[in-house]
C-alpha cells in the first residue's frame, strides 16, 4: 500500500504519469516556516521528512497495514534566500521581480517511510534561468492566478514555462516531485511498481491521458487537507 502524504494534485499527477497509483492521499498539516538561517536544502529535506513522519503517525493510529508513506517539499531560492510559497498577490509580484532575468535553484526533498519504518531521503536540485520579465509580463502572469500556493510564485507547468530560458536538471523536480529519483527510491525499497500498474499503463497509452480523481488542473489550488482514498 502507498500513501501520498500530500494535498498536491501535481504530485499525484506526476506519480500517475510514472504509472504509480497511490492508494490514499493523506496530507500532513505543518508549519513550514524556515528556522533562523536555515539553508534551503536543509529546509526541503526537513519538511519532507516532517510531512512523512506526521502522516506515518496518523496512519499508525488508523491501523493501516504497513504502508509506504511518501512525502515531498519544494523550495525555490536565490542564493540562500528562500522564496515564499505565495498566497498573496504582492508576494508573488515580489518573487517574480527577484527571479526576473536571473538564475535560481529549486530543491525538492523526497522522504519515504518504508513498511519496516525506515526513513529514506533524496534531495534533488534543479537550476532555472528566467528571461527578463517586463512589468506587462508580471502583471499578466499575476492575473492568471497560477502563482497561488506555488513555491517562488510561479508554476513552470503553466504559463511560466514561457519564462524559462534554461533549465539544468530535473524538470519534474520543479513541478514538485523528481520522477526519476522517486521511482528509483520506491523500487529500491521493494515497492512493486509493476504489480499495481501493468495493465493500467497499457490502457493509458492506448486511451490517452487519464483523468485524475483529485483534480484535472495541475496548476489549481490544492483541495482541503484531508485523507482521500483513491481506489474504491
Ligand atoms: C516552482 C514550482 C512549484 N510548484 C508547487 C509544487 C508544490 O505543490 C508547491 C510547493 O509547496 P510544497 O510545500 O512543497 O507542497 P504543497 O504544500 O503544495 O503540497 P503538500 O501537501 O505535498 O505539502 O509549489 C509548482 O507546481 N510548479 C513550480 O514550477
TrEMBL record:
<dbReference type="GO" id="GO:0036221">
    <property type="term" value="F:UTP diphosphatase activity"/>
</dbReference>
<feature type="compositionally biased region" description="Basic and acidic residues">
    <location>
        <begin position="33"/>
        <end position="50"/>
    </location>
</feature>
<feature type="site" description="Important for substrate specificity">
    <location>
        <position position="157"/>
    </location>
</feature>
<keyword id="KW-0546">Nucleotide metabolism</keyword>
<keyword id="KW-0963">Cytoplasm</keyword>
<feature type="compositionally biased region" description="Basic and acidic residues">
    <location>
        <begin position="220"/>
        <end position="232"/>
    </location>
</feature>
<feature type="site" description="Important for substrate specificity">
    <location>
        <position position="10"/>
    </location>
</feature>
<feature type="active site" description="Proton acceptor">
    <location>
        <position position="73"/>
    </location>
</feature>
<dbReference type="GO" id="GO:0036218">
    <property type="term" value="F:dTTP diphosphatase activity"/>
</dbReference>
<feature type="region of interest" description="Disordered">
    <location>
        <begin position="26"/>
        <end position="50"/>
    </location>
</feature>
<dbReference type="GO" id="GO:0005737">
    <property type="term" value="C:cytoplasm"/>
</dbReference>
<dbReference type="InterPro" id="IPR003697">
    <property type="entry name" value="Maf-like"/>
</dbReference>
<protein>
    <recommendedName>
        <fullName>dTTP/UTP pyrophosphatase</fullName>
        <ecNumber>3.6.1.9</ecNumber>
    </recommendedName>
</protein>
<dbReference type="InterPro" id="IPR029001">
    <property type="entry name" value="ITPase-like_fam"/>
</dbReference>
<feature type="site" description="Important for substrate specificity">
    <location>
        <position position="74"/>
    </location>
</feature>
<comment type="similarity">
    <text>Belongs to the Maf family. YhdE subfamily.</text>
</comment>
<comment type="function">
    <text>Nucleoside triphosphate pyrophosphatase that hydrolyzes dTTP and UTP. May have a dual role in cell division arrest and in preventing the incorporation of modified nucleotides into cellular nucleic acids.</text>
</comment>
<dbReference type="GO" id="GO:0009117">
    <property type="term" value="P:nucleotide metabolic process"/>
</dbReference>
<dbReference type="Pfam" id="PF02545">
    <property type="entry name" value="Maf"/>
</dbReference>
<keyword id="KW-0378">Hydrolase</keyword>
<feature type="region of interest" description="Disordered">
    <location>
        <begin position="203"/>
        <end position="232"/>
    </location>
</feature>
